[in-house]
Design goal:
Helix content is 35%, strand content 23%. With 299 residues, the chain is α/β, with parallel strands linked by helices. It starts with 5 loop residues before the first strand and ends in a 14-residue tail after the last helix. The mean pLDDT is 93.
């Protein structure tokens, strides 16, 4: 089978600092026992996991200011193939707080649209790619409903008809995306219910195939059941392996990357590719960091 070139688009890059505490309590000055920095964002995480699985991808994103430069340096050191468009605003920053006595907590700075010039550059890059490639649009897209996104929306609509367009987003971008002939939508159950307006997940998944021109769906619910459906069969319910959760951050991105690797690159059926991806997503949740867990022995 011909393996398509894979690209990921992170619309809202994050300069992410992580502080680790033995214990922490609100309302006090406290000193961390460890600190680290990484670039974050859903598409970036997908590309990181694809790289670990031996699958090449291009990471598209927008970066601005000193936080953006720090993210660019980190992504370069991580060995990612980058296509970065200069943003009009400084890249957002975030703080992850970990300790033994409290659940992991993430604080995020304000979101900004990349700006018209960056979006136009991204649209031109997308327009210049050949037919038949795969583009995964991941995470939030600040300012999506404004006119600045018109060029990129136009090229994404064209891409959906000349290649494989994948969506892992929410809110207004997701509502627009599902009106296109997408190859795949991967979202969590809350995002799906907000989109569909129904709580009956099995019935709603089946109805989604009729309501929208999306070929494949994957609906996750954290450590709970996963529903998937392609264009030919009934919805399939899968159960991830149980793990002791350390950090759920990025596990959905690991799932999408492993699914794409199994389905697009190794020729697995869609349902089998989702099943193959679940243990890797669970392993990510059982370890700190994103896409940094030990891979199973292929032998």
């Amino acid at each position: 089978m011909k393996v398509p070139a894979i690209h990921t688009l992170t619309g809202n890059l994050l300069a992410e600092h992580t502080f680790t505490f033995a214990r922490w309590e609100p309302g006090r000055t406290q000193r961390a026992t460890g600190a680290s920095f990484q670039a974050g964002g859903k598409g970036l995480n997908v590309s990181r996991m694809l790289r670990r699985l031996g699958v090449a991808s291009t990471t598209l994103t927008f970066a601005g200011g000193e936080p953006g430069a720090a993210c660019l340096g980190w992504m370069t050191r991580a060995g990612l193939d980058l296509q970065v468009f200069p943003a009009a605003h400084t890249t957002r920053t975030g703080l992850v707080v970990r300790s033994a006595n409290r659940a992991e907590t993430t604080f995020l700075g304000p979101d900004f649209s990349p700006g018209p010039d960056a979006l136009a550059e991204c649209a031109a890059w997308v327009a210049g790619r050949p037919d038949g490639e795969l583009l995964a649009v991941c995470g939030s897209l600040p300012g999506w409903e404004g006119p600045d996104y018109d060029p990129l929306r136009s090229e994404l609509a064209r891409w959906a008809r000349r290649g494989l367009l994948v969506a892992d987003t929410y809110g207004p971008p997701l509502a627009w995306m599902v009106s296109q002939p997408l190859a795949l939508v991967k979202i969590n159950v809350d995002e799906f219910r907000a989109l569909h307006g129904a709580d009956d997940t099995p019935g709603a998944v089946a109805a989604a195939r009729v309501r929208w021109p999306v070929q494949r769906w994957v609906i996750t619910s954290g450590p709970g059941e996963v529903w998937c459906q392609d264009a030919t069969g009934a919805p399939v319910r899968l159960t991830p392996p149980p793990v002791k959760e350390i950090s759920p951050t990025g596990s959905g991105d690991v799932l999408l990357a492993a699914l794409l690797a199994a389905w697009c690159c190794h020729g697995r059926s869609f349902a089998n590719a989702v099943a193959d991806a679940l243990p890797l997503a669970a392993a990510n949740a059982a370890h700190p960091g994103v896409a940094e867990f030990p891979l199973p022995d292929a032998s």
